[in-house]
Amino acid sequence: MIIAREKEQEFFHSSPEYAHLASRMGSEYLAKLLSQQLEAVIRARIPSITSLINKTIDELESEMDHLGRPIGSDAGAQLYLVLELCRAFDKIFKEHLDGGRPGGDRIYWVFDNQLPAALRKLPFDRHLSLPNVKRIVSQADGYQPHLIAPEQGYRQLIESGLSYFRGPAEASVDAVHNVLKELVRKSIGETEELRRFPTLQAELAAACNKALESFRQEGRKTTVRLVDMESAYLTVDFFRKLPQEVDRAGTGYPVDSAGTGPSTPVDRYSDAHFRRIASNVSSYIGMVSDTLKNTIPKAVVHCQVREAKRSLLNYFYIQVGSKDAKQLALLLDEDPALMGRRQQCFKRLELYKSARDEIDAVSWSR
């Protein structure tokens, strides 16, 4: 090849037709010219190639963040990761309750719609029907009829009537419990960092549901206690303000509107007398119903919603804190398909970074 190039140069320099162009003729000059053209094309294309590489690296970095970085092998790093994942879940759960995400409004719906509707459906019409009032008042008197007002009959009618409030109270507790369980499920599903750890998701859901169950039991105790408190001590002033059927001397005659004296005799065993008892008891139960309509939601929020915000994960933290490295590794067990996808993504990312480094290392200036 050396001899051939020498003969080529000799030909162009000795030829009358090409002697004046000899410096721009021959394979060596052609190679130099083509190299310059190639360099010019590369110079023009390098910015777009670099831009494409950088864009692909950013996409792969984002995908790696979505898939999650590799997990550390020591127990401290694993425990830190578990706690970080729990904090991410807890943040989303509280956003559901506080209004940043949908779902918490369903708790208000329980208080504003379900509870009042349940209170309206209670069978007080049957409980305060004339035959039932007669029966309870008569049984309460025993062998000796009441003298002025059938106090024992009143008490039995009220106490047995107030027991109906237990049902709506417990139903409100259960309804809010179901809402909280659903919000836990949704929050786990919406926590992207948890998606790669199905075992951790299951353990977290079980621990949260166990905590919510304890909150429900406390909510039931408190709301039922509110109902029992109303039954344990009646509001005496309510009955003192009611119109009296007999005068203060117990003559058995009603006092007229001016309070100056008796008018016509009253048959204490007439239907009108028992209807008056039923009406008074109904008014008292209505007053208690209005009270419980306000206090039951307070008790439910205090025992369930507030505790869910404050200490939903306390039980889970105790469990996690007692696990060793092997148990934490099992807790952070990943889906094999996800692990394979991350490995492929990692290899591609390394290749693109290597290409970028090589391009940056080349100097195109002369």
From TrEMBL:
Residues 274-366 form the GED domain. The lineage of its organism: Eukaryota, Viridiplantae, Streptophyta, Embryophyta, Tracheophyta. GO terms for cellular component: membrane; microtubule; phragmoplast. Keywords: Cell cycle, Cell division. GO terms for molecular function: GTP binding; GTPase activity; microtubule binding. PROSITE patterns: GED. It comes from Aegilops tauschii subsp. strangulata (Goatgrass). Coiled coil: none annotated. The keyword Cell division applies. This is GED domain-containing protein. InterPro entries: Dynamin, Dynamin_stalk, GED, GED_dom, P-loop_NTPase. It holds the Pfam family GED. Its main location: cytoplasm. One of its GO terms (biological process) is cell division.
